[in-house]
Amino acid sequence: MMNKSAPASGGMERYLNEAKELLAERSRRWQRAKQMKFDTIAVHGMYTVEEAINRNQGAIIEPLFLSSAQAYRDSAELEAALSYQIPTWCYTRIHNPTLGYLEDTLALLETYGSDITASCCVYSSGMAAIENVTDTLLVKLDSKPINFVSQCQIYGGTFQQFNVRKFQERGIEVRWVLEPDNIEEWRKKIDENTRFLYAETPSNPGLQFFDLKPVIELAHQHNIPIIVDSTIASPALLRPLTLGADIVIHSATKVMSTSGMGMAGAVIARQPIVTSIPNEELKKDFALYLKRYPQRDQGGCLHPFQALMTLNDLRDLRHRVDLFSRNALEVARFLNSHPGVLEVSYLGLESHPLYPVATKYLKLADTDENRYTHLLAFRVKGGPTATRRVFDRFQLIYRATDLGRVKTVATIPAISTHLLQGEECREMACIPPDLIRLSVGAEDPADIIKDLEQALSGVEK
């Protein structure tokens, strides 16, 4: 965090020189990490043997900084730090070293396989991340009303934030795209007052997917950024920044924190982002801008303990996503052949209409093999009543609104995650009342199938 325009008093010179050396060393470590394989980055991030020995008493696991504030050597260092002339963490609401370890790892994973430079800002939840990103970009430049464009097939909480908190309460228009695979629909919704495009791929719970590159190019033609919620895929399967997207959002509560012991959100932004907002600091390093200003002022910071928990869960991310995806495909094939199931939505089924485009994009890192995520949805014959009966019969599968867990979890979105959207908006987003969302975990798929089979045994064929 440095601001070269801020004046430096004579006593600051020592700290400014130290900062230059520190940033140069950080740049060298970043370039070295960029040469590593995905799994190595997930395990090590930017934390090195040298740092462990020289600064952390040899600790091979990143240290947990529970202190809420940072002390300074004298008034000159304090002033240099609080004016952002030297790297600092200062106060956990602004930053914290443990958060930094997680942020570096996520920035490296999201840019893996490319020469892109990106930065990250982590939050207390995915919803906090979405709010900070979108509110920061929804800047009024003149008296004209502003708007943003989003696909309508998004997580229920995101829909509420856009439709109620922003549109109904603040008058910021959200323009819904009903068919995100139709580039012309995106094009028609954009005008000179559009601040950004928003996508969620694959979407929760309907698994909507579309060709990202043309929509990214369209956004940039209009000099606006595109934000992609990539929670379901994770960087193990999809890295939108490498396709040209500007900002990636994760509910790190889900796939990244698969143990299910806490909540976290993350924003990873390329440097620079495309935007028509005349703010060079925001454009140059968007994630750092979030950390310096919106997050500092609004207070949605992540607790250091949860940052370390998420960091530890990340270390085997690619292997877990591989396992969950293979299990999900096996479960989807079972459901697709069951006479009591009306319809199965899983991107890995060749019969799925979006299978070709998902196959184009969803590839396991460091392989040429397709994986189609842990998430699927299915409809039970007999309508909502039969759906609830099947749902209530689960014995191994947990009934909860969670997903991305090591344990298999199911919910009925129409009465849970997307309940507040209302029937009309659920219809718009293709979420019928008889849909069960299934997040497949690490159990043996035979046991998951056995539980589904007994639950479905009473359905009329």
Order of helices and strands: HHHHHEHEHEHEHEEEHHHHHEHEHEEHEH
Low-pLDDT sequence parts: 1-8
Record field, number of beta strands: 12
Tally of alpha and pi helices: 18
Give the end-to-end Cα distance, rounded to a whole number of Å.
63 Å
Oligomer: single chain
Q: What is the CATH architecture descriptor of the largest domain?
A: 3-Layer(aba) Sandwich
Residue fraction in strands: 5-15%
Broad shape = globular
| CATH H level, superfamily name of the largest domain | Type I PLP-dependent aspartate aminotransferase-like (Major domain)
Structural domain count: 2
Q: What is the arithmetic mean of pLDDT?
A: 94
List descriptors:
2 domains, alpha/beta, 12 strands, Aspartate Aminotransferase, domain 2, 18 helices, disordered N terminus, 461 residues, seven-stranded mixed sheet, five-stranded mixed sheet, Aspartate Aminotransferase, domain 1
Topology at a glance:
Blueprint (H helix, E strand, L loop, with lengths): L12 H22 L3 H7 L4 H7 L19 H8 L14 H14 L7 E6 L2 H12 L9 E5 L4 H15 L2 E5 L5 H7 L4 E7 L11 H10 L4 E4 L17 E4 L14 E6 L9 H5 L1 H7 L1 H5 L5 H11 L2 H21 L3 E5 L9 H7 L13 E6 L2 H10 L5 E2 L9 E3 L11 H6 L6 E5 L5 H12 L5
Parallel strand pairs: 2-3, 2-4, 4-5, 5-6, 10-11
Antiparallel strand pairs: 1-7, 6-7, 8-9, 9-12, 11-12
Helix pairs in contact: 2-5, 5-13, 14-18
